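RECORD TYPE: protein structure
NAME: Ubiquinol-cytochrome c reductase iron-sulfur subunit
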Amino acid sequence: MSNEKQVDSGRRGLLVATGAAGGVVGLATAGALVSTFQPSERAKAAGAPVEVDISTLNPGEMKTVEWRGKPVWIIKRTPEMVASLKKTDGKVADADSKRNPEEFTPEYARNEWRSRKPELLVAVGICTHLGCSPSSKFTPGPQPSLPDDWEGGFLCPCHGSTFDMAGRVFKNKPAPDNLQVPRHMFLSDTKLVIGKDEKGEA
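PREDICTED:
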């Protein structure tokens, strides 16, 4: 009788140990599966969409995020910045974003604001001339390397290309095209996805 109890307790110990080990393996496997659903750094670099929280972005501010190894600017324009676009319409080279639209401007951004919402601009911060990164020059008025009637926008310090507050290049500048507007969409008033829109990924 005592031998049977010893055997039973031995079996019970073996079953408990096996079950515990199986549980650990199961958890490790589940963890590995969950991690496969999250974009890896390599996938992000290759162009996986990037979700951005814009809840803390105030009027007149710019936030920079990385997508496909490029800086993407998100600018919350003030009413004055939006109004300035009317003044620069006749000074920019491609006011209606008709040059290379498939590459630089999605259909929903082929408007005066080059955006889905007048107050929010989403643009790749790389000059279309030689790939330099322009500087933000949001303050209107005369400044070094800028015209006296400057309304605010961006200046590429390498070769002097200037862009307005919609990323539209001014006439007679080295940059051949407006700044690129990447495909994007809003998940809510405070959440933005870059690299993807209703038609799919870029």
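COMMENT: The helical segments are 2-36, 41-46, 79-88, 101-104.
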